[in-house]
Amino acid sequence: GENVEQHPSTLSVQEGDSAVIKCTYSDSASNYFPWYKQELGKGPQLIIDIRSNVGEKKDQRIAVTLNKTAKHFSLHITETQPEDSAVYFCAASINNAGNMLTFGGGTRLMVKP
Amino acid sequence: EPEVTQTPSHQVTQMGQEVILRCVPISNHLYFYWYRQILGQKVEFLVSFYNNEISEKSEIFDDQFSVERPDGSNFTLKIRSTKLEDSAMYFCASSPVGAGELFFGEGSRLTVL
Fold it and tell me: Fewer C-beta within 10 Å: chain B N or C terminus?
């Protein structure tokens, strides 16, 4: 089955700096790659996703890149703010009916003011 | 904004007892899911449910687990005879279509003593 690895497990940045979180996946059939943000005491919330027919997607300060050949994808957050502090999860799935996601281990991002 | 709601937020039970975790998915969604996260580990897929039947399930979802949509609004996860290793945060999620964004609830923390 699919295996998703995520690095780093913790990341501390200064406010205004950029943060990059990287994930690799094992199943070349995976074609949907969402990123979730989980704040303390809440469930994961989708922040951006990318499908395998594109290499990059951007939404304001957040961007995701996908390299299908190398089987890795990354989350980029620019101009970080303290409210970006949370745990971020990458995931992968073969996007058929059911959307069974395989998650990475999570990255705890701390943005220091 | 519509959201997925889960009850209870925390349940403590004795090993061997039956537990039912409840979820109210977003009202016009058609696909329902349970995921779990053991403390310090990855979020793991348990089961997906569509059209009143299980569409996919993982190896974790053995005979001790069952799901039901008893009344058209609730979606429940039952663990028949809990084990210590069932202690985890259980997340319910729903999506409007099989290939769409998953909306997660805030989770139900299960502690088995």
Answer: N
Is A43 in Cβ contact with B106 (below 8 Å)? yes
Whether B38 and chain A come into contact, CB under 8 Å, resolves to: no
- Summarised one tens digit per residue, pLDDT across range A34-49 is 999 999 888 899 999 9
Q: Which pLDDT does position A20 carry in this prediction?
A: 98
Q: Any idea which residue has 């925390």 for tokens? A: B10
Are the beta carbons of A77 and A62 closer than 8 angstroms?
yes
Which residues in chain A have Cβ-Cβ distances shorter than 8 Å to B58? 100
B55 touches chain A (CB under 8 A): yes
A95 pLDDT band, cuts 50/70/90, is low
Query: What span, in angstroms and rounded, lies between the C-alpha atoms of A39 and B7?
Result: 19
Q: Determine whether B88 is exposed, middle or buried from the number of CB atoms within 10 Å of its CB (0-12, 13-18, 19+).
A: buried
Nearest CB partner across the interface for A97, out of B41, B50, B93: B50
- Could you give the percent of chain B with pLDDT greater than 90? 78
Q: Does B100 touch chain A (CB under 8 A)?
A: yes
Euclidean distance between the first and the last CA atom of chain A, given in angstroms as a whole number: 41
Could you read off the pLDDT of B74-94 as tens digits, one per residue?
999 999 999 999 999 999 999
CB contact set of B53 (below 8 Å; sequence gap of 6+): none
Type of residue numbered B17: Q
